[in-house]
Design brief:
Blueprint lengths: L1 H79 L4 H20 L4 H75 L3 E11 L5 E3 L8 E8 L8 E10 L10 E4 L4 E4 L1 E7 L4 E8 L6 E9 L2 E10 L1
Antiparallel strand pairs: 1-2, 1-3, 3-8, 4-7, 4-9, 5-6, 9-10
Helix pairs in contact: 1-2, 1-3, 2-3
Length: 309
């Protein structure tokens, strides 16, 4: 009988326990569902925000590419057009500055709209510049065509003139050669006398090296009625067999080379023959051959030699 009494009580307890378990499971599932919902909603919002930012970035990149294309176009026009180069460089600099500002910007919608308007303005300006460049190219083509026609006419004229000039070239050439030839001063007859000077003042000609005390060098400038009166300087160079320069051993630099000389001789020429005479004094001259060169500037105009025994 006791077992029969306990059986209904046990059933009631089991039923109550199951009900509590089911109720707890429902509450737990509801809580988990709410947490999942609360976690899912921010993620969805984050994804939505990320999508908006991606669109702005894409718009920013598109604008940046358009600016790069603008810069490239300006670079090409600047290379082609020298007339408008200053104005074109200024416009290209605006594009470069805008590119720099765009890269540094945050990329929000307001900034994107502002840069889009500025790019549109620059594109309109480029369109105007392109039209002007095309017009200038057409003008250049026209000018080149005109220049070609002028050159053709000039070439024809030159041919006619050349035919006429050929008849006079022979006379002109002969005249120029005659003027050049006869206007130059001719130097010749260079002679050398070596001597010793006695205590009495008398000069004794000698070629004994140990007795020579002076060298007299003379040359003649020929008469020239075409040449203009002029003050001339001739450079006399006396060199022994060891290539040592006697005398002052000065140096004169001319247009193409430097000249070391023994002495300079200043002459006033007035269309008449002039005999120039100079002396180089010294002692203990070495035996051997000596070479005398007369220079007019850097040009050798006469030469001679002598021997001391």
């Amino acid at each position: 009988m006791k077992n029969q009494a306990k059986s209904p009580l046990l059933k009631v307890i089991l039923i109550s326990f199951c009900a509590i378990a089911l109720l707890s499971s429902g509450v737990l599932y509801y809580s988990i569902g709410m947490e999942n919902e609360s976690e899912t909603e921010p993620v969805s919002k984050s994804k939505k925000i990320k999508r908006v930012l991606t669109e702005n970035e894409r718009e920013k990149n598109m604008i940046l590419q358009e600016l790069k294309d603008l810069k490239k176009t300006y670079d090409e026009i600047i290379l082609e057009n020298k007339t408008m180069s200053f104005e074109l460089i200024q416009e290209r600099d605006k594009v470069i500055k805008l590119m720099t500002d765009l890269v540094a910007s945050k990329g929000d919608q307001i900034a994107i709209d502002k840069y889009r308007d500025q790019v549109k303005s620059l594109q309109e300006k480029l369109a105007m510049v392109t039209v002007e460049n095309v017009e200038l190219k057409e003008q250049n083509v026209s000018i080149k065509r005109q220049n070609a026609n002028i050159k053709e006419q000039r070439d024809i004229t030159e041919v006619v003139l050349n035919e006429s000039q050929k008849k006079n070239e022979g006379l002109k050439r002969d005249l120029q050669n005659t003027v050049e030839k006869f206007s130059k001063l001719e130097v010749s007859g260079t002679s050398i006398v070596t001597y010793r000077l006695k205590s009495s003042g008398d000069l004794i000609v000698t070629d004994k090296a140990n007795k020579v005390g002076g060298i007299n060098i003379s040359f003649v400038i020929a008469k020239n009625e075409i040449a203009k009166p002029i003050d001339k300087t001739y450079y006399i160079q006396v060199m022994n067999s060891e290539n040592l320069i006697l005398g002052d051993d000065d140096m004169r630099t001319h247009q193409y080379k430097s000249l070391t000389y023994s002495m300079a001789s200043n002459v006033r020429y007035e269309n008449k023959m002039v005999r120039v005479s100079e002396n180089i004094m010294g002692k203990n001259f070495a035996k051997g051959t000596y070479y005398v060169n007369i220079y007019d500037g850097e040009n050798l105009v006469d030469e001679s030699s002598f021997v001391l025994k």
